[in-house]
């Protein structure tokens, strides 16, 4: 992984233009020809080729030689474009270290008037075709060049939309800004619930169910909830990772709610021997039961 701050500071304006040219070209090509990048960047051939060589050396653009030389953004290059947009908007002014790496995201520390976190989506890093098949919100989308770039951007946009609906009623990070595949949000305290040994697990289970209920009342079902995206600390808990959310009343809503609740109840039963009835808990979340039943 690159040093995002160092690479960003090393770029000159023409290299940012070329990066944006590659991005634009990827809407139409898997590997973007030099002449297309020329047209998008508004620069001459020699300048474009020189800047492309530098960007390849920086490991933020990849070159592929076939019947022609084609170029493609790497995820780190897409990160740089989002960072540039945030800096221009003064969303933050300084970048820090990597503070989290997940299966489908990388999180960097940053500084605005307060510490913030920048989450870069990585959907489709290994196979965007597999991601498209496994994400309900992508299944029915047909575009000419469906790529990881599009999948990651759409995931960030969806997650930010959900966060704007949920915050501050539900315990999630505060959403601050979104650009391309990146979201700026407040820093999350604590560790994954999967890695924690809770002193009062019953209280945390009640708290998780309450947050799921509040989200449901706002029309949102997480749809990928587990002990791996619930962060816990002495102050409480925060639920993260909302790009796969579904709306209450959608065709998969009942299935996704049941899966979310089952995942949570299974974790607490296996680790803490706390048992709750699945259907009674779902009934409580929906407002059909007066209380949580064991």
From TrEMBL:
Quickly give the catalysed reaction: L-seryl-[protein] + ATP = O-phospho-L-seryl-[protein] + ADP + H(+); L-threonyl-[protein] + ATP = O-phospho-L-threonyl-[protein] + ADP + H(+)
Domain RIO kinase span(s) in chain numbering:
64-287
The protein's matches in InterPro entries, at most eight in alphabetical order, are given as: Kinase-like_dom_sf, Rio2, RIO2_wHTH_N, RIO_dom, RIO_kinase, WH-like_DNA-bd_sf, WH_DNA-bd_sf
Give an example GO biological process.
maturation of SSU-rRNA
* Reported cofactor(s): Mg(2+)
> Which SMART domains does this chain map to?
RIO (SM00090)
**Keyword Magnesium on this protein?**
yes
**EC number, as in UniProt:** 2.7.11.1
Q: What class of enzyme is it?
A: transferase
Q: Name one GO molecular function term.
A: metal ion binding
Q: Which UniProt keywords apply?
A: ATP-binding, Kinase, Magnesium, Metal-binding, Nucleotide-binding, Serine/threonine-protein kinase, Transferase
GO CC, one annotated term: preribosome, small subunit precursor
Say yes or no: keyword ATP-binding present.
yes
Record-stated family? Belongs to the protein kinase superfamily. RIO-type Ser/Thr kinase family.
Name of this chain's protein: non-specific serine/threonine protein kinase
Organism of derivation = Methanocella arvoryzae (strain DSM 22066 / NBRC 105507 / MRE50)
